[in-house]
Task: structure prediction
Amino acid sequence: MMVENQRMLTETINRMANQGGRNAPDGSAPNQYSSFKDFMDMKPSPFREAEEPLQAEEWLNTVEQKFRLLRLTEGLKAEYAAHQLQGPTGIWWNQYREALPDNTVLD
Result:
């Protein structure tokens, strides 16, 4: 079950990071001026692990709602979401990032 959750998180965070400079779903331009403090002021919950894939999906949906309100760039979305990964998931994400080629940019 944990492997499936990790795969789903990898795909989702990569999807968020690789959407490039596309506009937000409502057609508005991304806002590169929303800060990390703005994001944290929205009190995003950390993500440690999920027993069911639906728990990971629920967390991602909640974080994506916050991103839509802030109209963040895609690169910031990936960085801010990754910051909320803690415990086993945070360790996994750090190992995943370290395994990427040196010049890989998630934006």
About this structure: The two ends are 28 Å apart (CA to CA). The chain has five helices and no strands. The CA atoms of residues 31 and 72 lie 5 Å apart. The chain has one domain: 2-21+35-99.
